[in-house]
Amino acid sequence: MSKTTNLFVTTAAVLTCVAAPVGAMAQNLIVSNARIIVGPGRVIENGNIVLRDGRIAAVEAGPAKAAPAGAVRIDGAGMTVIAGYIDDHRHLIQGPPDKFLAETAPRRMRELLEAGITTVQSGGDNDAAVLELKRRVESGTIKGPRIVTSARVATAEMKDEEEVRAAIRRVIAAGADSIAEVHYPITEPPQKNVPTEKESRNLAAGIDEARKAGIAFQVHASAVPPMLAAVKLGARKLVHTPHFGWMTDAEAKTVSASGAQVSSCTGFGAPVFDVFNRDNKPNFRDGKPWPEQVLDGEGRGREAGYKPVNGRTLFDNGVDFGFCTDTTYYAPAALAHELRVLSLVFSPYDMIKILGPNSADFLDKQKDIGTLEVGKMGDLLVLTGNPLDGWWNFNTAVVVVKGGQVMVDKRAQLKTVKVLPYQRPPID
Question: What region, left, alpha or beta, does residue 274 occupy, with left being phi > 0 and alpha being psi -120 to 50 degrees?
Answer without folding.
Answer: left
